[in-house]
Design brief:
It contains seven helices and seven strands, in the order H-H-E-H-E-H-E-E-H-E-H-H-E-E. The protein is an alpha/beta fold. It has a single domain, classed as Rossmann fold (3-Layer(aba) Sandwich), CATH 3.40.50. Strands 3-2-1-4-5-7-6 form a seven-stranded mixed β-sheet, sandwiched between helices. The termini are far apart. The N terminus is likely disordered.
Length: 211
């Protein structure tokens, strides 16, 4: 089985650096901060029965969502069949499907749709946001790297100097303000977090009947 690194040319997003499996204490601390902020936002969502993660990769966040919402049906989707096979092997008992983010609009309704570190890889983020909002009957949670901080940290750790710290595959670059301006035409934002070095936004699709 090929790794995400070997598949990177075929994927919208791949984990070129396995932050979830890293033993580096700084990386582990950053990931803990990401998780803590993520679940602070999710604590405000309330009870959900159907949760979808789009662009789930190897399924690490999907598994965390399944633990956080033990009574919900939690599904992870990704466009790559090989990555989905890896997710199924790593996280048995969780439902994974092959599906592009651009095609999730007709899979709902979902009480919660999560896109964790997906939108920075997309050539058509507006189209993807439209699909995510159509799939959601309730909340939408989106996380992306916080620019330019992300690139500065990459350079500081000696990575991607030739591209000025840009992670391979990142074609969108948002600050907090820029991300909110991108999302607000489609989402009523109800909460944000900025754990170093990410941005997390929770919102409701405009016109949603969710409380």
């Amino acid at each position: 089985m090929r790794t995400a690194r070997e598949l990177q040319g075929e994927l919208v997003a791949g984990n070129l650096f396995d932050k979830y499996g890293s033993r580096n204490p700084v990386v582990r601390r950053l990931v803990r901060g990401f998780d803590r902020a993520l679940f602070e936002l999710l604590a405000t969502v309330g009870r959900v029965e159907r949760v979808l993660e789009v662009g789930c990769g190897e399924g690490h966040v999907t598994a965390k969502l399944a633990r956080h919402f033990p009574d919900a049906r939690v599904v992870g989707t990704d466009r790559s069949s090989e990555i989905i096979s890896q997710a199924r092997q790593l996280h048995g008992g969780i439902e994974f499907r092959v599906c592009s983010i651009y095609d999730v609009g007709d899979t709902g309704p979902w009480d919660l749709v999560v896109a964790s570190e997906v939108f920075e890889h997309l050539e058509e983020p507006e189209r993807a946001l439209d699909a995510v909002c159509r799939a959601a009957s309730g909340h939408v949670l989106i996380t992306v790297p916080r620019e330019p901080l992300w690139r500065i940290l990459n350079v500081a750790r000696g990575h991607y100097w030739s591209s000025l710290g840009n992670t391979p595959g990142h074609v969108q670059h948002w600050s907090r303000g820029a991300l909110l301006r991108f999302l607000e035409p489609r989402l009523d934002v109800v909460g944000t977090r900025t754990p170093l070095p990410w941005i997390q936004v929770l919102g409701l699709p405009r016109g949603s009947a969710a409380p």
